[in-house]
Amino acid sequence: MPNMLSVTFPPQGKAFFSYGFRPFFLGASLFAGFAVPVWILVFAGFVEMDFPYPSREWHVHEMVFGFLPCVITGFILTAIPNWTDRPPVSGWPLMLLFILWVAGRLSLACPWVPGVAAAIIDSSFFLAVAGVVWREIIAGQVWDRSPIGILISLYGIANILFHVLALGNQETNLATRMALGLLMVLLALIGGRITPGFTEDFLAEANIAKPPAAFSPFDGISILLIAAGAVAWIIQPQHVATGWIFIVAGLANIIRLSRWHGWVTWREPLVLILHVGYGWLALSLLILGGSILGFGLQPEDAVHALTTGAVGSMTLAVMTRATLGHTGRPKKANQVTIVMYLLVTLGTLLRVFGPLTEISTTLILSLAGIAWSGAYLLFATVYGPFLLQPSLDDE
User: Fold this and answer.
1) Dihedral of the CA atoms 115, 44, 374, 342 (nearest 10)?
2) Quick check: is 115 in a domain?
3) Rounded to whole angstroms, how far apart are CA atoms 40 and 369?
4) Whether residue 151 sits in one domain with residue 218
5) DSSP letters of 194-208?
6) Does residue 144 sit in the same domain as residue 203?
7) Which residues contact 291 (CB under 8 A, 6 or more apart)?
8) Average pLDDT, the chain
9) Total domain count for the chain?
10) 3-state DSSP assignment of residue 140
11) 84-141: per-residue pLDDT in tens?
12) Percent helix, strand and coil across the chain, each rounded to 5?
């Protein structure tokens, strides 16, 4: 039986829907590049948007449950063949998944779509992704990847809870904390695997005899501390014990990061940015713990250290590296890629620490948003053609 993809798609369409990273990385970068400026205009009072939810709820939802899952889906769908030795999800199934994600973004931005309908459309994407992940885990018998399937499923439940609360005109903080807590654990699991792994590859190629420390019980404890802090934060966000768990988790993960010898990777920004991202994760834990205990920055600053810093840095790191590697290009960061990394870092620094200055909050947040979203627009501009075109290995 002929392959449907090869029969019905033109060459560019065949390439674009051949691997999960292609549509979802491009979609995420374009969405981040435009959704953040829209939010800035709404926040500053220059534009009025009639979203199904209040504008702040829309912004929180679309970054936590719109942008982030798009990147995560692209990464997981690309990694699954390596986990299972099965063909990648491609062709029409991949295209339908991507259309479902786009439909969720459009439905939540259009005032004429009823809130319940928008919630159903958006939630169905998570259900579809979770179904695909579990299907591949079961078919490939890779039960050691079950934690990823569990976390994705719980993420989908948190999204449904967000919609239920928002539609009932209730605070959505619980659902948001659930998602961010799951995100912390995901970053600790996935970031804790790829960061030392790619560092080891780089050091071997550079003939530097200083490999990262192998996974040990200390790494497991560092991850469990994050998980414990996340659960405590979801249940008792202002309890003193929650604050101290996060402080200990942050310190443990700083030590974990130091064992990977990231400072040696300064020659290759493609690897160094992963260490920067994991550093933001550890720092976000410390800021969150400190804010709960009553000293340091505010909880929202910790959230942005996690989202704009850890997520922003690590997603760009994964997106650039995977795009280069899977399209047959050298895995080296060029000058434009370095600018992307600098912009996302600048945006995070301004967003997290800018409010401490005497500069106008609106100006600080605007500059932070422009820098951060600019990094993703650059990715879409420079790496977009790579994602649309066939791999150089196929030419």
Assistant:
1) -120
2) yes
3) 7
4) no
5) HHHHHHHHHHHHTT-
6) no
7) 243, 297, 298, 299, 301, 302
8) 91
9) 2
10) helix
11) 889 999 999 999 999 999 999 999 988 888 989 999 999 999 999 999 999 999 999 9
12) 80, 0, 20
